[in-house]
Write a structure and sequence with these properties.
The structure holds two protein chains of two kinds.
Chain A lengths: L4 E3 L2 E4 L5 E6 L6 E7 L6 E7 L2 E5 L7 E4 L6 E5 L8 E8 L6 E2 L3 E5 L1
Parallel strand pairs in A: 2-11
Antiparallel strand pairs in A: 1-3, 3-8, 4-5, 4-9, 5-6, 7-8, 9-10, 9-11
Chain B lengths: L3 E4 L2 E5 L4 E7 L6 E7 L6 E7 L4 E4 L2 E6 L4 E6 L8 E7 L9 E2 L3 E6 L1
The chains are: A mainly beta, B mainly beta.
Chain lengths: ~110, ~110
């Protein structure tokens, strides 16, 4: 499968715990994006990378959130001290120079 | 801030009829307008997109129109089929200058037998 992949697909955690998600983009795509989607809403932009550089972060991304793309390939999104309000689907997308963003299957996070 | 409004939030049409979803955007620098289809529990999938240098684009039963002056764009699905049932999201982006996509809240389309 040469599409965008994400791991894990589901995560249940207790409030206050840290979680980390991984995204593997389509190979050779230099741009990688993270979005968050809650029930009944459209995806909301969190941050994006061009190669290793993190170019923009949304105001939605509090200090508890950090994202990395150390070698310009896969990316990780970490949430520290999770809160119940962090429960959502976390979507990753990638693109090349064509502007089209291809989405992964998402990681569904439930914070108890 | 940037905003994309989408309506209706829910739309039911008889199989074989047409469906129209309308969106407006606030950022005048937007020049790329993709539409995504999301089935329950699945990833958003691009179904059609349009850039600001054209006013209309068609792909089989799906067409999108863009009015940059009014900041309106619409999705038209003709001869609807049961597999068209899903949530549809319109979106806007500045393209290469600022790639993040701003999504509307979605339209849940039901195709009635």
């Amino acid at each position: 499968d040469t599409g965008v992949s994400q791991d894990p697909r589901h995560k249940i955690t207790k409030r206050g715990q840290n979680v980390t998600f991984r995204c593997d983009p389509i190979s050779e795509h230099n741009r990688l994006y993270w979005y968050r989607q809650t029930l009944g809403q459209g995806p909301e932009f969190l941050t994006y990378f061009q190669n290793e550089a993190q170019l923009e972060k949304s105001r939605l991304l509090s200090d508890r959130f950090s994202a990395e793309r150390p070698k310009g390939s896969f990316s990780t999104l970490e949430i520290q001290r999770t809160e119940q309000g962090d429960s959502a689907m976390y979507l990753c997308a990638s693109s090349s120079a064509t502007w089209t963003q291809y989405f992964g299957p998402g990681t569904r996070l439930l914070v108890l | 801030g940037e905003n994309v409004e989408q309506h209706p939030s829910t739309l039911s049409v008889q199989e074989g009829d047409s469906a129209v979803i309308k969106c407006t955007y606030s950022d005048s620098a937007s020049n790329y307008f993709p539409w995504y289809k999301q089935e329950l529990g699945k990833r958003p999938q691009l179904i059609i997109d349009i850039r600001s240098n054209v006013g209309e684009k068609k792909d089989q039963r799906i067409a999108v129109t863009l009015n940059k002056t009014a900041k309106h764009f619409s999705l038209h699905i003709t001869e609807t089929q049961p597999e068209d049932s899903a949530v549809y999201f319109c979106a806007a982006s500045r393209g290469n200058r600022d790639d993040k996509i701003i999504f509307g809240k979605g339209t849940r389309l039901h195709i009635l037998p």
